[in-house]
Design a protein that fits this description.
This protein is α+β, with helices and mostly antiparallel strands and 129 residues long. It has four helices and six strands. 45% of the residues lie in helices and 12% in strands.
Length: 129
């Protein structure tokens, strides 16, 4: 038998049973956030990185936090929102900054030199003295 409450459910032994939505909104100390993130090169994300996301953000995207009696907290939902907004920002930057041609810098330079030489040669041929 369960009794439904606003934040969670209580089972017959008066032990709270947290729902998935409650877990997403449950405060997490900022220090514990790296364990909720995927590892990179088999290393966890640094706490300093998470702190920077919360204080300064990345490209205008800031990890939401709230201050508790023992420090800063966030939620799984806010972590997910931060990651989604950051990924959208990166996607937009990649599409806006996409190269207009697939030529390398050396190829573009060679083409410019070739055009310059052609312009010099053809402009001299067309001149009359």
């Amino acid at each position: 038998m369960s009794i439904s409450t606003d934040a969670s459910q209580i089972d017959a032994n008066n032990i709270p049973v947290h729902s998935e939505s409650h877990a997403a909104s449950h405060p997490i100390p900022l220090r514990e956030v790296p364990q909720y993130l995927p590892r990179r090169a088999n290393k966890p994300v640094s706490y300093n990185t998470v702190w920077r996301w919360a204080r300064k953000g990345v490209g205008g995207v800031v990890l939401k936090t709230l201050r508790g009696p023992s420090g800063l907290y966030t939620t799984r939902a806010w972590i997910e929102q931060f990651l989604l907004e950051y990924n959208e920002l990166k996607r937009l930057q990649e599409t806006e900054c996409a190269p207009r041609s697939s030529l390398t810098t050396e190829q573009r330079r060679a083409r410019e030199v070739h055009r310059s030489v052609e312009n010099l040669l053809f402009s001299k041929e067309g001149e009359t003295r």
